[in-house]
Amino acid sequence: MDASNQRPEPPRGGATYRSAAYTGLLPWQVRERRFPPTRLGRRGLNPDDVYAFLDRVAGDMAAVYAALAESRRETARIKAGLRRWQADQARARTERDQAR
Q1: What is the DSSP string of 28-97?
Q2: Is 3 helix (H, G, I), strand (E, B) or coil?
Q3: Can you tell me the distance from the alpha carbon of 68 to that of 27, in angstroms, rounded to the nearest whole number?
Q4: pLDDT digits (tens, 9 = 90+) for 5-25
Q5: By CB count within 10 A, which of 3, 65, 83, 93 is most buried?
Q6: What global pTM score does this model have?
Q7: What pLDDT score does 13 carry?
Q8: How far apart are the C-alpha atoms of 49 and 29, rounded to whole Å?
Q9: Cα 51 from Cα 34, distance rounded (Å)
Q10: Cα separation of 92 and 84, whole Å?
Q11: pLDDT tens digits, residue range 21-74?
Q12: CB 54 within 8 A of CB 30
């Protein structure tokens, strides 16, 4: 098999390969996407169905972005709590060591 036909190896560390120029779609971009009418009259997809589907996709994307933001806030809260706990443990250990 020719190397140009093979999928590139993902980078180490578990990250997915993406070009630096890649930007993810945002819900408003999906909602505002419009398709030109077909040249042959009623042939092609029903525009109302396409726009209804795009609105549904945009709504789902908005929900995913909201859940991701909430997850990030929760992660930050847990990390801050862990840092406080670690500092308390280090302080208590130092006090125990000094008392000996």
Answers
A1: HHHHH---PPPTTTT-S--HHHHHHHHHHHHHHHHHHHHHHHHHHHHHHHHHHHHHHHHHHHHHHHHHHH
A2: helix
A3: 14
A4: 444 454 555 555 566 776 777
A5: 65
A6: 0.57
A7: 54
A8: 17
A9: 8
A10: 12
A11: 767 778 888 888 877 777 666 677 777 888 888 888 888 888 898 999 999 999
A12: yes
Q: In whole angstroms, what is the distance from residue 87 CA to residue 93 CA?
A: 10
Residue 4, pLDDT > 50, answer: no
Radius of gyration over every alpha carbon of the chain, rounded to an integer in angstroms: 26
For residue 46, the one-letter residue type is N
Phi first, then psi: what are they for 29, rounded to 5°? Answer: -70, -35
Q: For residue 77, how many C-alpha atoms fall within 13 Å in the half-sphere facing its CB?
A: 6
Residue 47, token pair as written in the block: 């525009």
Other CB atoms within 10 A of residue 65 CB: 13
